[in-house]
Amino acid sequence: MKSSLHSNRGDSLLTDPSYVNTVAFDPARHILASGSTDSTVRLWNVADPARPTPLGRPLTGHHNAVRKLAFSPDGRLLASASRDGTIRLWDVTDPAGAVLVGQPLTSHQGEVNSVSFSPDGRTLASAGLHDRQVRLWDVSHPANATGLGEPLSVHTGPVTAVAFSPRGHMLATASADDTTRLWDVTRPARPVPLGHPLAARSGGVYGVAFSPDGRTLATANVDHTVRLWNVTDPARPLALAEPLTGHTSFVYAVSFSPDGHILASSSDDHTVDLWNVADPDHPSQLGTALVGHTGPIDDVAFSPDGHTLASASDDHTVRLWRLDPVRAIRGICAATGDSLTEDQWTQLVPGAPFHRVCPPR
After folding, report:
1. pLDDT in tens, 14-47
2. Contacts of 7 by beta carbon, 8 Å cutoff, 6+ apart
3. Global pTM?
Protein backbone atom coordinates (compact mmCIF):
# COMPACT_ATOMS: atom_id res chain seq x y z
CA MET A 1 0.00 0.00 0.00
CA LYS A 2 1.38 3.39 -1.00
CA SER A 3 0.29 6.81 0.20
CA SER A 4 1.59 10.35 -0.06
CA LEU A 5 4.13 11.42 2.55
CA HIS A 6 4.90 14.70 0.86
CA SER A 7 3.85 17.50 -1.40
CA ASN A 8 4.36 16.21 -4.93
CA ARG A 9 7.00 18.63 -6.20
CA GLY A 10 8.75 19.88 -3.11
CA ASP A 11 7.78 22.76 -0.86
CA SER A 12 10.77 25.03 -1.57
CA LEU A 13 13.21 25.49 -4.40
CA LEU A 14 16.74 26.88 -4.01
CA THR A 15 18.30 27.84 -7.31
CA ASP A 16 21.99 27.68 -8.20
CA PRO A 17 23.98 28.81 -11.26
CA SER A 18 25.44 25.32 -11.66
CA TYR A 19 24.88 21.62 -10.94
CA VAL A 20 24.28 21.06 -7.21
CA ASN A 21 26.25 18.00 -6.12
CA THR A 22 25.73 17.82 -2.38
CA VAL A 23 23.65 18.99 0.57
CA ALA A 24 24.21 18.77 4.32
CA PHE A 25 22.23 19.96 7.34
CA ASP A 26 23.87 21.55 10.35
CA PRO A 27 23.10 19.10 13.19
CA ALA A 28 22.63 21.88 15.74
CA ARG A 29 20.99 24.77 13.85
CA HIS A 30 18.49 25.39 11.07
CA ILE A 31 21.20 25.72 8.43
CA LEU A 32 21.61 23.90 5.13
CA ALA A 33 24.82 23.82 3.10
CA SER A 34 24.95 23.10 -0.64
CA GLY A 35 27.97 22.51 -2.87
CA SER A 36 28.08 23.04 -6.61
CA THR A 37 30.04 22.46 -9.78
CA ASP A 38 30.80 26.20 -9.90
CA SER A 39 33.31 25.50 -7.06
CA THR A 40 31.26 27.27 -4.38
CA VAL A 41 29.55 26.38 -1.13
CA ARG A 42 26.33 28.13 -0.14
CA LEU A 43 24.71 28.37 3.28
CA TRP A 44 20.96 28.76 3.81
CA ASN A 45 18.75 29.61 6.75
CA VAL A 46 16.01 26.95 6.72
CA ALA A 47 14.35 27.75 10.05
CA ASP A 48 11.22 28.08 7.92
CA PRO A 49 11.72 25.48 5.17
CA ALA A 50 8.97 27.14 3.15
CA ARG A 51 11.00 30.37 3.04
CA PRO A 52 14.75 29.58 3.00
CA THR A 53 17.11 32.54 2.81
CA PRO A 54 20.82 32.74 1.87
CA LEU A 55 23.38 33.34 4.60
CA GLY A 56 26.30 35.53 3.57
CA ARG A 57 28.14 35.22 0.28
CA PRO A 58 28.99 31.91 -1.42
CA LEU A 59 32.17 30.40 0.02
CA THR A 60 34.94 30.44 -2.58
CA GLY A 61 38.39 28.91 -2.67
CA HIS A 62 38.01 25.62 -4.49
CA HIS A 63 39.13 25.55 -8.11
CA ASN A 64 36.76 22.84 -9.31
CA ALA A 65 33.44 21.26 -8.41
CA VAL A 66 32.51 20.74 -4.75
CA ARG A 67 31.57 17.08 -4.55
CA LYS A 68 30.64 16.53 -0.89
CA LEU A 69 29.96 18.49 2.29
CA ALA A 70 29.91 17.41 5.93
CA PHE A 71 29.25 19.35 9.14
CA SER A 72 31.11 18.53 12.33
CA PRO A 73 28.84 17.16 15.08
CA ASP A 74 28.76 20.53 16.89
CA GLY A 75 27.97 22.38 13.66
CA ARG A 76 30.89 24.78 13.97
CA LEU A 77 33.01 23.30 11.20
CA LEU A 78 32.12 22.44 7.61
CA ALA A 79 34.31 20.21 5.42
CA SER A 80 34.14 20.45 1.63
CA ALA A 81 35.61 17.86 -0.74
CA SER A 82 36.39 18.90 -4.29
CA ARG A 83 37.28 17.72 -7.73
CA ASP A 84 40.35 19.98 -7.39
CA GLY A 85 41.91 17.30 -5.15
CA THR A 86 41.58 19.23 -1.89
CA ILE A 87 39.52 19.29 1.27
CA ARG A 88 38.79 22.64 2.88
CA LEU A 89 37.63 23.33 6.41
CA TRP A 90 35.35 26.29 7.11
CA ASP A 91 34.51 27.92 10.42
CA VAL A 92 30.75 28.41 10.20
CA THR A 93 30.20 29.53 13.79
CA ASP A 94 28.88 32.71 12.19
CA PRO A 95 27.25 31.30 9.06
CA ALA A 96 26.84 34.74 7.51
CA GLY A 97 30.58 35.29 7.85
CA ALA A 98 32.06 31.82 7.39
CA VAL A 99 35.85 31.73 6.94
CA LEU A 100 38.42 29.25 5.73
CA VAL A 101 40.39 27.54 8.51
CA GLY A 102 44.01 26.52 8.00
CA GLN A 103 45.44 25.27 4.74
CA PRO A 104 43.64 22.97 2.28
CA LEU A 105 44.25 19.25 2.88
CA THR A 106 46.05 18.11 -0.24
CA SER A 107 47.31 14.51 0.07
CA HIS A 108 44.84 12.98 -2.39
CA GLN A 109 45.88 12.64 -6.03
CA GLY A 110 42.85 13.77 -8.01
CA GLU A 111 39.20 14.24 -7.06
CA VAL A 112 38.04 13.89 -3.46
CA ASN A 113 34.54 12.49 -3.66
CA SER A 114 33.39 12.22 -0.05
CA VAL A 115 34.10 13.36 3.52
CA SER A 116 32.69 12.30 6.89
CA PHE A 117 33.32 13.46 10.47
CA SER A 118 33.61 11.03 13.36
CA PRO A 119 30.91 11.53 16.02
CA ASP A 120 33.43 13.16 18.39
CA GLY A 121 34.45 15.60 15.65
CA ARG A 122 38.15 14.83 16.04
CA THR A 123 38.64 12.72 12.90
CA LEU A 124 37.71 13.32 9.26
CA ALA A 125 37.63 10.56 6.64
CA SER A 126 37.99 11.29 2.93
CA ALA A 127 37.51 9.25 -0.25
CA GLY A 128 39.79 9.59 -3.26
CA LEU A 129 38.05 8.94 -6.54
CA HIS A 130 41.14 8.73 -8.72
CA ASP A 131 43.82 7.57 -6.29
CA ARG A 132 41.45 4.88 -4.91
CA GLN A 133 42.49 5.74 -1.37
CA VAL A 134 40.78 6.52 1.92
CA ARG A 135 42.54 8.94 4.23
CA LEU A 136 41.96 9.84 7.87
CA TRP A 137 42.76 13.25 9.28
CA ASP A 138 43.17 14.62 12.79
CA VAL A 139 40.99 17.75 12.80
CA SER A 140 40.88 18.27 16.56
CA HIS A 141 42.80 21.48 15.85
CA PRO A 142 41.30 22.51 12.48
CA ALA A 143 43.86 25.22 11.78
CA ASN A 144 46.56 22.55 11.94
CA ALA A 145 44.80 19.46 10.59
CA THR A 146 47.16 16.57 9.86
CA GLY A 147 47.00 13.17 8.19
CA LEU A 148 46.73 10.05 10.34
CA GLY A 149 48.73 6.96 9.47
CA GLU A 150 48.98 5.51 5.99
CA PRO A 151 46.15 5.79 3.42
CA LEU A 152 43.85 2.80 3.03
CA SER A 153 44.57 1.47 -0.45
CA VAL A 154 42.68 -1.83 -0.65
CA HIS A 155 39.90 -0.79 -3.03
CA THR A 156 40.59 -1.66 -6.67
CA GLY A 157 38.32 1.05 -8.07
CA PRO A 158 37.48 4.68 -7.32
CA VAL A 159 36.40 5.23 -3.71
CA THR A 160 33.01 6.91 -3.88
CA ALA A 161 31.85 7.34 -0.29
CA VAL A 162 32.86 7.15 3.37
CA ALA A 163 30.71 7.13 6.51
CA PHE A 164 31.40 6.76 10.23
CA SER A 165 29.13 4.64 12.39
CA PRO A 166 27.14 6.56 15.04
CA ARG A 167 29.45 5.36 17.84
CA GLY A 168 32.51 6.26 15.79
CA HIS A 169 34.33 2.96 16.17
CA MET A 170 33.63 1.83 12.61
CA LEU A 171 34.11 3.34 9.16
CA ALA A 172 32.40 2.20 5.96
CA THR A 173 34.09 2.81 2.60
CA ALA A 174 32.29 2.29 -0.70
CA SER A 175 33.78 1.88 -4.15
CA ALA A 176 33.13 1.49 -7.84
CA ASP A 177 34.92 -1.86 -7.44
CA ASP A 178 31.48 -3.14 -6.28
CA THR A 179 32.45 -3.52 -2.63
CA THR A 180 31.80 -1.80 0.65
CA ARG A 181 34.40 -2.36 3.35
CA LEU A 182 34.19 -1.97 7.11
CA TRP A 183 37.07 -0.78 9.28
CA ASP A 184 37.71 -0.67 13.00
CA VAL A 185 38.87 2.92 13.56
CA THR A 186 39.06 2.82 17.34
CA ARG A 187 42.68 3.84 16.72
CA PRO A 188 42.22 6.10 13.67
CA ALA A 189 45.95 6.15 12.89
CA ARG A 190 45.83 2.36 12.51
CA PRO A 191 42.52 1.21 11.00
CA VAL A 192 41.89 -2.53 10.97
CA PRO A 193 39.68 -4.25 8.34
CA LEU A 194 36.57 -5.94 9.68
CA GLY A 195 35.04 -9.06 8.20
CA HIS A 196 34.74 -9.65 4.48
CA PRO A 197 33.94 -6.99 1.87
CA LEU A 198 30.23 -6.48 1.25
CA ALA A 199 29.94 -7.54 -2.37
CA ALA A 200 26.56 -7.66 -4.09
CA ARG A 201 27.40 -7.88 -7.80
CA SER A 202 25.57 -4.60 -8.25
CA GLY A 203 28.03 -3.04 -10.69
CA GLY A 204 29.41 -0.57 -8.14
CA VAL A 205 28.49 1.39 -5.02
CA TYR A 206 27.93 5.16 -5.09
CA GLY A 207 26.73 5.92 -1.56
CA VAL A 208 26.65 4.49 1.94
CA ALA A 209 24.93 5.38 5.24
CA PHE A 210 24.61 3.91 8.73
CA SER A 211 21.28 3.81 10.53
CA PRO A 212 21.21 5.92 13.72
CA ASP A 213 21.45 2.80 15.90
CA GLY A 214 24.47 1.61 13.91
CA ARG A 215 23.00 -1.83 13.24
CA THR A 216 22.09 -1.34 9.58
CA LEU A 217 24.14 -0.12 6.65
CA ALA A 218 22.48 1.05 3.43
CA THR A 219 24.22 1.22 0.07
CA ALA A 220 23.27 3.05 -3.14
CA ASN A 221 24.10 0.93 -6.16
CA VAL A 222 24.80 1.14 -9.88
CA ASP A 223 22.22 -1.58 -10.65
CA HIS A 224 19.38 0.81 -9.64
CA THR A 225 18.95 -0.80 -6.20
CA VAL A 226 19.33 0.06 -2.55
CA ARG A 227 20.70 -2.69 -0.34
CA LEU A 228 20.52 -3.14 3.42
CA TRP A 229 23.12 -4.95 5.52
CA ASN A 230 23.06 -6.08 9.14
CA VAL A 231 26.37 -4.89 10.61
CA THR A 232 25.56 -5.57 14.27
CA ASP A 233 28.51 -7.97 14.15
CA PRO A 234 30.80 -6.21 11.66
CA ALA A 235 33.05 -9.26 11.47
CA ARG A 236 30.07 -11.13 9.99
CA PRO A 237 27.92 -8.64 8.06
CA LEU A 238 24.77 -10.06 6.53
CA ALA A 239 22.56 -8.96 3.64
CA LEU A 240 19.04 -8.03 4.77
CA ALA A 241 15.94 -8.76 2.71
CA GLU A 242 15.92 -8.40 -1.05
CA PRO A 243 17.43 -5.38 -2.82
CA LEU A 244 15.04 -2.42 -2.78
CA THR A 245 13.85 -1.74 -6.30
CA GLY A 246 11.90 1.19 -7.69
CA HIS A 247 14.50 3.43 -9.27
CA THR A 248 15.06 3.12 -13.02
CA SER A 249 18.70 4.25 -13.09
CA PHE A 250 21.81 4.54 -10.90
CA VAL A 251 21.17 5.25 -7.20
CA TYR A 252 23.60 7.94 -6.07
CA ALA A 253 22.91 8.53 -2.37
CA VAL A 254 21.09 7.18 0.68
CA SER A 255 20.17 8.88 3.96
CA PHE A 256 18.40 7.66 7.11
CA SER A 257 15.91 9.79 9.00
CA PRO A 258 17.07 10.70 12.52
CA ASP A 259 14.78 8.08 14.08
CA GLY A 260 16.02 5.44 11.63
CA HIS A 261 12.54 4.52 10.43
CA ILE A 262 12.77 6.05 6.94
CA LEU A 263 15.49 5.74 4.32
CA ALA A 264 15.67 8.16 1.39
CA SER A 265 17.44 7.29 -1.87
CA SER A 266 18.25 9.63 -4.77
CA SER A 267 18.86 8.61 -8.34
CA ASP A 268 19.98 9.43 -11.83
CA ASP A 269 16.32 8.87 -12.77
CA HIS A 270 15.47 12.36 -11.35
CA THR A 271 13.51 10.97 -8.37
CA VAL A 272 13.83 10.38 -4.63
CA ASP A 273 12.29 7.26 -3.12
CA LEU A 274 11.34 6.81 0.53
CA TRP A 275 11.49 3.44 2.27
CA ASN A 276 10.00 2.20 5.54
CA VAL A 277 12.97 0.54 7.26
CA ALA A 278 11.62 0.50 10.82
CA ASP A 279 11.96 -3.27 10.46
CA PRO A 280 14.99 -3.61 8.15
CA ASP A 281 14.22 -7.29 7.64
CA HIS A 282 10.94 -6.27 5.98
CA PRO A 283 11.47 -2.90 4.24
CA SER A 284 8.82 -1.40 1.98
CA GLN A 285 8.42 1.64 -0.23
CA LEU A 286 6.61 4.61 1.29
CA GLY A 287 4.37 6.44 -1.11
CA THR A 288 5.22 7.29 -4.67
CA ALA A 289 8.54 8.75 -5.76
CA LEU A 290 9.27 12.41 -5.07
CA VAL A 291 9.19 14.10 -8.46
CA GLY A 292 9.98 17.64 -9.55
CA HIS A 293 13.67 17.61 -10.37
CA THR A 294 14.53 17.65 -14.07
CA GLY A 295 18.05 16.23 -13.74
CA PRO A 296 19.97 13.53 -11.84
CA ILE A 297 19.78 13.87 -8.05
CA ASP A 298 23.27 13.52 -6.61
CA ASP A 299 22.58 13.79 -2.90
CA VAL A 300 19.84 13.69 -0.30
CA ALA A 301 19.77 14.56 3.42
CA PHE A 302 17.28 14.71 6.30
CA SER A 303 17.02 17.69 8.62
CA PRO A 304 17.87 16.96 12.29
CA ASP A 305 14.17 16.92 13.24
CA GLY A 306 13.34 14.56 10.37
CA HIS A 307 10.56 16.80 9.06
CA THR A 308 12.39 18.08 5.98
CA LEU A 309 14.31 16.32 3.24
CA ALA A 310 16.77 18.16 0.98
CA SER A 311 17.77 16.93 -2.48
CA ALA A 312 20.58 18.25 -4.70
CA SER A 313 20.29 18.01 -8.47
CA ASP A 314 22.09 18.63 -11.73
CA ASP A 315 19.06 20.76 -12.69
CA HIS A 316 20.73 23.62 -10.73
CA THR A 317 18.34 23.33 -7.76
CA VAL A 318 17.98 22.12 -4.22
CA ARG A 319 14.48 21.06 -3.29
CA LEU A 320 13.15 20.95 0.26
CA TRP A 321 10.40 18.42 0.88
CA ARG A 322 8.14 18.62 3.93
CA LEU A 323 7.33 15.08 5.05
CA ASP A 324 3.87 14.53 6.49
CA PRO A 325 3.38 11.11 8.12
CA VAL A 326 -0.10 11.98 9.35
CA ARG A 327 -1.19 12.57 5.74
CA ALA A 328 0.31 9.18 4.91
CA ILE A 329 -1.65 7.46 7.67
CA ARG A 330 -4.87 9.07 6.50
CA GLY A 331 -4.13 7.90 2.98
CA ILE A 332 -3.79 4.35 4.26
CA CYS A 333 -7.05 4.68 6.13
CA ALA A 334 -8.83 5.97 3.03
CA ALA A 335 -7.46 3.17 0.90
CA THR A 336 -8.08 0.31 3.32
CA GLY A 337 -10.90 1.47 5.58
CA ASP A 338 -8.85 -0.08 8.37
CA SER A 339 -7.89 1.19 11.80
CA LEU A 340 -4.28 1.68 12.79
CA THR A 341 -3.12 -0.13 15.91
CA GLU A 342 -1.02 1.64 18.53
CA ASP A 343 2.03 -0.37 17.40
CA GLN A 344 1.51 0.70 13.77
CA TRP A 345 1.15 4.32 14.88
CA THR A 346 4.42 4.14 16.82
CA GLN A 347 6.15 2.79 13.72
CA LEU A 348 4.76 5.44 11.38
CA VAL A 349 4.77 8.47 13.71
CA PRO A 350 7.48 7.85 16.31
CA GLY A 351 7.41 10.24 19.24
CA ALA A 352 3.86 11.48 18.63
CA PRO A 353 1.05 10.64 21.08
CA PHE A 354 -1.22 7.89 19.79
CA HIS A 355 -4.67 8.86 18.62
CA ARG A 356 -7.07 7.29 16.20
CA VAL A 357 -7.18 8.80 12.72
CA CYS A 358 -9.05 6.00 10.97
CA PRO A 359 -12.80 5.80 11.44
CA PRO A 360 -13.95 2.49 12.97
CA ARG A 361 -15.19 -0.18 10.61
Report:
1. 999 999 999 999 999 999 999 999 999 999 999 9
2. 321, 322, 324
3. 0.89
